[in-house]
Amino acid sequence: MDFLEKMSRLLNQSLLWIAGFLLAVMIILTCGNIFFRIVWMPISGTFELMGYLGAVVTAFALGYTQIGHGHIAVDIVVLKFPKKLQSVLNGINGIIFMAFFSIIGWKVAQYATNLWRTGEVTETLRIIYFPFTYAVAFGCFSLALVFLVEGLQSFLVTREKER
Asked: Where are the alpha helices (DSSP H) in the chain?
């Protein structure tokens, strides 16, 4: 269990660093586009790149945000339950969300494969965009891994309390 948790944390920290780098690229591109729009002419394809890079940044940050419990959680009712029941519900929640994001990742990867096979390119820059789609799928799979770890931890804590 510790190995799975460490791998999940390492993977999601690495993805967060990549997301941070891509976010910096987006900032530089936006500032450059503003500057060139004033001085000469805007950078072609900025809007396209912002959309694709923004999707990758968001997908890569999902897992790390979940590790830090940075997502919104409405648990007013659950906090009134006994700790054992809370732990069981958290485990069930983790497994359900792991399955949900695994399916999302799988479907997005299928869509990326379709884009790859058809040779689709962006409208302005004419660059292939299936790598961006695969990156989003990978971000969903990394989030699913986080939910798997959280679900297993909740069930292990429940079993240890029973002993």
From this structure: 2-39, 46-67, 83-118, 130-162
